[in-house]
Amino acid sequence: MPQTCSPQFDARLRQMLTRIVAVLVMLLSFAPFSVSASELLVAHSYKMAGDTSRMRLVVHFDKEPDLRWFLLRDPHRLAIEMPEAEFRFDAEELTARSMVTGVYYGNTGPGTSRLILSFDGPFAVERVEILQNESEPGYRMVADIGAASEEAFQTAMAEQVATTGATAAAKGDRLVKQAVRQTRPFRVVIDPGHGGIDTGAAGVSGTQEKTITLAFALELKKRLEDVGGLDVFLTRDRDLFLRLDERVKIARQNEADLFISIHADSIRQKSVRGATVYTVSDKASDPEAAAKAIRENLADEIAGVVVEEENEEVADILVDLIRRETQGFSIRFARSLVEELKGAIAMIPTNPHRFAGFRVLRAPDVPSVLLELGYLSNPDDEALLRDPEWRAKAANGIASAIGYFAAARQGAGG
Ligand SMILES: [Zn+2]
Question: Which residues surround ligand 1, an ion (CB under 5 A)?
Fold first, then answer.
């Protein structure tokens, strides 16, 4: 037999070679790009908590995740992009709560997955951090999110478009932005305490606290608008129930420079009378202030609203810094308010500036005070609270304190 290949053998050899090449191509194209289930990033233990003004999101990972986040609008959403992941979330933890209306997750293309949260309104991402677990293997992402104005959301969106990769501005930038506010009128949000089903305290001759606080707030707003140079907002302008966190949210959404919650309390000792100014503090100035905060914080429960546990134990250094600075401004305003009111109306004889854990004063970035105009449980105070002339004097005192505070804040460039 001559040593030449027959046409049949040649064809068979070519067929075999083609098959081998095909298998090789298959192996080459699949092996390096396919991610076996064991290599996938595992996202687990999803948790979110907070109220309608602030929340925290925590997601655990089996290994250090490479995350990127960005904002989406219509509706307002936060998207967190990560390498292809296997999501082991407990469905119950994903149900809408706090500011979140929906949670979505899954694969979004070769090698990538996304976790998307939709919100009930504009928000600001205060921090996103990846931390290594201390007591167990793995990592966790911690994100703190607060309600914000539409303007702030749009600005953040514009910035993410401007920076490549759609990642957020560094923390330092946010601090700078906090300090350099745009030149616009000083903004005051007045919060008439209680409302709707929550009537607040009752006066000796039947006056309801919610009615007094609203009437006073409307008069104060008018007084401040007459003075001019200020933007004045109300949390409510009618007989409406608002949760405490909704009041905080309104202040933040309006980018308030000052928040004043108006009240007129009632206590058993009918002889006690006069106005008191309160600021927030974890430690109360005295037992009466502590009891007062407990009474005011009950507003939500009175209306049958379930209040979720706030998780405040883990504080971000940045938020902490802002909170401490805000606290200083709240105290400064409270002192000046006491001074101005002293000349206009009667203050409670001892310590007219007190502090306790009022939930309505918890905005981390808005100086906030709670003003107790007087005691509805005292017949003389109740009569004064119903007297338009007395109320005008009180409004004048508050207006001048706000005027000094606004001038000092704006003079300082922020
Ligand atoms: Zn009250």
Answer: 193, 200, 263
Contact 213, 193 (CB under 8 A): yes
Q: Which of 218, 201, 235, 302 is nearest to 52 (CA)?
A: 235
Task: Report whether pLDDT(75) > 90.
Answer: no
C-alpha to C-alpha distance for 148 and 153, rounded to whole angstroms: 7
Whether residue 334 is predicted with pLDDT greater than 60 in this model: the reply is yes
Among 85, 94, 138, 142, smallest CA distance to 114 is for 85
Distance 244 CA to ligand 1 centre (A): 11
Question: Is the model's pLDDT at 177 over the cut of 80?
Answer: no
Ligand 1 centroid distance, CA of 198 (Å): 10
Q: What is the mean pLDDT of residues 28-36?
A: 46
What would the mean pLDDT of 119-144 be, rounded to a whole number? 92
The model's pLDDT over 234-244, given as tens digits with 9 standing for 90+, comes to 999 999 999 99
Domains detected in the chain: 37-164 (2.60.40.3500), 186-411 (3.40.630.40)
3-class SS of residue 124: strand
Cβ–Cβ < 8 Å for 91, 106: no
